[in-house]
Amino acid sequence: MTSRRRSEMVEETRAKLIRAARSAFAEKGYSTASMDDLTAVAGLTRGALYHNFGDKRGLLAAVVDQIDAEMAERAHAIGSQAESPWEGLMAEGVAYIEMAMEPEVQRIVLLDGPAVLGDPSKWPSQNRCLHATMQTVQALIAQGVVKPVDAEAAARLLNGAALNASLWVAASDNPSEVLVRAVDAFRCMATGLLETPA
Q1: What pTM was estimated for this model as a whole?
Q2: Dist. CA 59–CA 62, nearest whole Å
Q3: Residue 6: partners with Cβ closer than 8 Å, 6 or more residues away
């Protein structure tokens, strides 16, 4: 077997396990989802899960990374439709917060993810988002749109606000009502960065 074919088989196995786990975690939650059931759905063994992800927690990390990356891509696509780079940045943050209303995102990324994997700000997907936000903030500072603040600090605070708003929405007994409040406060806080407030 060629190394390329072996690599393709490994990727195929990982993809099957992630797909099965994503479905199981969304439907049943992390703690209730059975490793035997999800490996059976994937047509694989527990050994394949252990070999590729170490354990169930490692598999959850891969699922969270995939969903969170998709969320970032969707938010960026929404932001790219905005009339200005600033409005694009705001639209991205708001879109991320609004995704907390989606059952899969809510359960896997915002409830089970932090409970099992710990601080979301340390997740690889969140670090990729931070880097992208920092680049946008740096460009907005250079254009004179945003005050000349520390770009990393501003990016961390913007991303942290959006993430924590999402966590609040997901954990709320009344997510629709909390969403409105969270989005309004997010926009209000962020405008403090503008050189000339809107």
Answers
A1: 0.89
A2: 5
A3: none
Per-residue model confidence as pLDDT tens digits over 62-119: 999 999 999 999 999 999 999 999 999 999 999 999 999 999 999 999 999 999 999 9
Domains of the chain in sequence order: 1-54 (1.10.10.60), 64-193 (1.10.357.10)
Give the contacts of 2 (CB within 8 A, at least 6 positions apart). none
Residue 11 has pLDDT above 70, yes or no: yes
What is the model's pLDDT at position 98?
Answer: 97
Q: What confidence tens digit (pLDDT) does each residue in 50-63 have?
A: 888 989 999 999 99
Check if the beta carbon of residue 86 is closer than 8 Å to that of residue 145: yes
Q: What element of type H or E holds 88?
A: helix 85-98
For residue 146, the SS3 value is strand
Query: Could you give the CA distance from residue 148 to residue 138 in angstroms, rounded to a whole number?
Result: 9
Measure the CA–CA gap between 152 and 186, rounded to whole angstroms: 18
Structural contact between residues 129 and 72, judged by C-beta atoms closer than 8 angstroms:
yes
Average pLDDT over the chain, rounded to whole?
92
User: What pLDDT shows up at residue 194?
Assistant: 96
